[in-house]
Amino acid sequence: MAEIHATPQEVASRHDDLPTDGGAAQRRQIWKVFIILSVLTALEFLIAFTMAHGTLKVAIFVGMTIVKAFYIVGEFMHLKHEVKSLIWAILIPTILVAWLLLALMWEGGAILQSR
Amino acid sequence: MAATTTDTLPRRMWLGGIEPMKASYGKLMMWFFLISDTFTFSALLISYGLVRFSFPAYAGTASDFTFSDLYWPIPEKVYEAVPFLHGVELPLIFVGIMTFILIFSSVTMVLAVEAGHRMDQNSVEKYMLWTILGGFTFLGCQAWEWAHFIHGTEGGSVIREIVDGQWVERTIYGANLVENQYGPPAFADFFFFITGFHGTHVLSGVLLNVLIYYRTATGFYDRRGHYEMVEKVGLYWHFVDLVWVFVFTFFYLV
After folding, report:
1. CA atoms within 13 A on the CB side of B228
2. Which ipTM score applies to this complex?
3. Do A35 and A63 fall into the same domain?
4. Chain A: nearest CA to B235, how far in angstroms?
């Protein structure tokens, strides 16, 4: 109900964090993140065609993907600026996912050996 | 008075009445929905990793590569076509364009959220339209990519199989869920399931964006006094972009 029939005070309290420069700094930050993401993607292309295939190349790709994920989740989804309990509530489950990924890739190699 | 009595009770962080995570109910639930969605996408990508490593990798040089169902294909040899450039070998260029489109639409989405904070209805409308345009363009690109993958190359690939106890050779074109000219059938299955599941998310994201645009344009959020719905749908849209970043790496690059 409060959401639909917000009192003027509630509305005003939501805009307490409005920056004095009208959000100009925030917009600059958004475009900065866009440039970082674009440069990383372009670099991934460069590496895809110049490096020999191997574990190092895969490790570099995974590392760059995690950096990109950090910028998308941290800046675009604003998680970096949330409270700590929310950050950990999101991050801890994904660490378990990474563990499962490594375990099952290892398992896949074992299936190949026993075929 | 009842009101004063409640006010004298100690206000503890996790006992209700306040937002310990400093995020509204709707935003928190969107985050937890996205975590559950992460598990679903992870399940698809992790099983891809398992099956990919249970097949032999291609051992020779990239220039000598030919399609075979005996080893896992090199993605840059599979995805090398671009619309209107028939017969030109442009590995991963098209999927790169798709990645840029999605990243760009994520930027316009976050700009719409920022405009919403300032209650700037015209800017929210403008950026939502750009985001919707990006979403539709991405879906169109994916439709083309699927059509190309299903139809296959002009030459096709020759596969050997046992029919009635005899080894026979047969040329197959393109891929579907049971046979695949580019490599093992499992490769095509994962392509359809992972990019298909992601495409479904993009489609529902575009529909939500259209709804948000409509409600912004009719002044609904302006009357409500805040644009938090733009933020919630924005979270979903960034998540779709995030998933594509992972699909791009694990399916197309590695």
Report:
1. 16
2. 0.86
3. yes
4. 6
